Amino acid sequence: MNLFDVRAQILPSALKALACAMLSLPAWAVDPFTVRDIRVEGLQRIEPGTVFASLSLRVGDQYTDDKGAAIIRSLFALGLFKDVRLETQGDVLVVVVQERPSVASVEFIGLKEFDKDVLTKALKDVGLSEGRPFDKALADKAEQELKRQYISRSLYGAEVVSTATPIDRNRVNLTFTITEGGPAKIAQIDIVGNKAFSDDTLRDQFNLDTGGWMSWYTKSDRYSRTKLNADLEALRSFYLARGFLEFRIDSTQVAMSPNKQDMSITINVTEGERFVISGVKLEGNYLDRDDEFKALVKIAVGKPYSAETVAETTKAFTDYFGKFGFAFARVEAKPEIDRRNNLVQFVLQAQPSRRAYVRRIQVAGNDRTRDEVIRREFRQLEAAWYDGDKIRLSRDRVDRLGYFTQVNVETLEVPGAPDQVDLLFTVAEKPTGSISLGAGFSSAEKVALSFGIRQENAFGSGHYLAVEVNTSKFNRNLVLSTTDPYFTKNGVSRTLDVFHRTTRPYLGDLDAYSLINSGAGLRFGVPVTETDTVFMGINVEQTEISEGTGLPNEYRDYANEFGRTSSALPLTLGWARDGRDSALVPTRGSLQRFNADVSLAGDVRYARASYQFQQYYPLSKKYTLAFNTDLGWGQGLKGQPYPLFKNFFVGGLGSVRGFEQSTLGPPPSELNPTPIYLGGPKKLVFNSELIMPFPGAGNDRTLRLFGFTDIGRAFGEDENVSVDDLRASAGIGLSWISPMGPLRFSYAVPIRKQTEDKIQRLQFQIGSSF
Q: Could you give the 3-state DSSP secondary structure of residue 496?
């Protein structure tokens, strides 16, 4: 037997004997003892009190192994230590800890798609932020969260690598190196199983698409599960609105290419048969008002089934029950299907349940706006019977304040009180103020500065406050305006205006003539109905015609007869009714405004009135037809001519596009030193627009294309209003609700003009619709 054979026999036997010996040793244990003192070792940044607060053992208590194990578990549960052990020195218990390093800083390399603050907040939500303890598991979790953020933006190929760099005082600098890659784009959308409608018709219902020339703006070719779910609901609604009662979406498959750049979506549907409404029956308790409820039925017998009309009917019934205090009314539309003849009859079963009154109304989400500003719009009161109409009116009035992006109302049951409910108004605030700073330079006036501040909800009080300053030598303004919408408890508003304006024609000459208008105004608005307001007020004005280069003969003649400085004390009367569904992007409803000024005191005596009417007709979900009429009239009183500086102006965006601003009126006199348009005391303006989605922008309502026709002109005091003198234009335009306000661009071609007219085909404006 050689040496290697001997070793081969001896070594296994020795290892087996050692293992048996170790198993025969008793487990390490500490005999119980009374703790005289407790010490903590190894702390660097953490306060000793944090450790002592987690100990279940105090001086004077008896120590056991079970209590020691509990101490170790509780300290590890804090998440602050990567190692904890206990030692005994006589009757002294020593807690030895090793702290986890803390995060000193978090940096991102390669970040383009996101704002740094967005990702910092996302990491904070998973427990990683500056000053927090750090370990590798937390870094892995942070990497997955960052990838999830990128997936939400269709960047499926994004790679995230974390690096922890130790620094002094047991801290680490954490760096996330990100390779974003390109977004995954939808290459194909297939719909399988459709027979009644073509693929193109169904894909038109989607916001997602395979891309177009506007996809860089809309990002409609980027896949999102949330967007796909919304599109599937739109597809379902499309079929249910056209009689396909049993339509269903069987499955949806989303496949990604190996390079994670292209995606394909396949939607499998079963259309079913198309059903026609054969009848509608009412069953249940309708408060002996069956005829009133029947008048609310939107379901049309003999027409194809439409889920929209069924939903509108049940909602109308529920709302009508709410009008009488039945907050818990249940209305169910049960179909009775005749598949042989493809007919369906609906049975509307109603159970009003019990009448309730409102115990409490709560408001949530208003971090800046005071409760009082919201509550004073309520028409439903606490401790009053539940009234659905008043609740809806309260919601609409809060929404019309313009301070919130969303206003929702929830009805909450009160436990133990079946006849009581609480109302919860939840609002989402939006910025209501703006600050503008500007500077301009020209050879004529060197540097001109402008400053403006506007706050529709100043300090959360609901007050409107605006300040405007412009130092331009051609248009110098100083304006202060403030409105208290609830000057009285009954909702009477009060507006104060103070202004000083200097207007000088841009003739390249700082010695040109100017009009200086100064004054103040006080106006009250009295609500007559929920949508109508009457305005009354008084202004004090002074207008000075300053001599200078280019002063028109009309101004010179007026100044010679009535003086270069004239005062007026006009009384104002106005009325407004706004029934539009939106102030920025209206699709239905109308707006009417009437304003009149009458000056019976001071140097200037005149009457001036204007009327505007807008009407919007929804042609479909995407197309809107809009009309606008704007009329103006002015007349001198007590033998005085109408003051020139109160004239109306027509031409350009806001009136008749395609012509230079304010040039459609009486032509300048040939005797004037410069051809300056002075407007007139009468005006007629008519506009029509067909508003449609911008090609490639899907259903984005903030970006719209429109075609238009405009007709109008201003008329002089001695001119008769004649249709033959009206100018007309037609063109196309683009409207965009930008962060700075509504932006409108138009290109117009005059279709009725005179040789002396000044043409300006391309124009833009920041302002309202018409």
A: strand
Contact indicator for 280, 299 with CB cutoff of 8 Å: yes
Strands 262-270 and 330-338: unpaired
Q: 95 and 106 in one domain? A: no
3-class DSSP string for 281-297: EEEECCCCCHHHHHCCC
Query: 738 and 655, same structural domain?
Result: yes
pLDDT in tens, 702-728: 788 999 999 999 999 888 998 999 999
Q: What's the token pair of residue 393? A: 């009116």
Nearest to 301 by CA among 279, 274, 283: 279
Which structure tokens are listed for 40? 């903590």
Residue 768 near residue 742, CB atoms below 8 Å: yes
Other residues' Cβ atoms within 10 Å of the Cβ of residue 522 = 14
pLDDT tens digit sequence for 402-414: 788 788 898 888 8
What are the distances in angstroms from CA 603 to CA 267, 565, 595, 597, 717?
76, 9, 22, 15, 19
Same domain, 745 and 655: yes
Separation of first and last alpha carbons in the chain: 111
Domain that holds residue 166: 102-179
Asked if 668 and 678 touch (Cβ cutoff 8 Å), the reply is yes
Identify whether residues 378 and 327 lie together within a single domain.
Answer: no
Query: In this structure, are 235 and 142 located in the same domain?
Result: no
Confirm whether 467 is domain-assigned: no
Nearest to 235 by CA among 196, 277, 264, 281: 196
In this prediction the pTM is 0.61
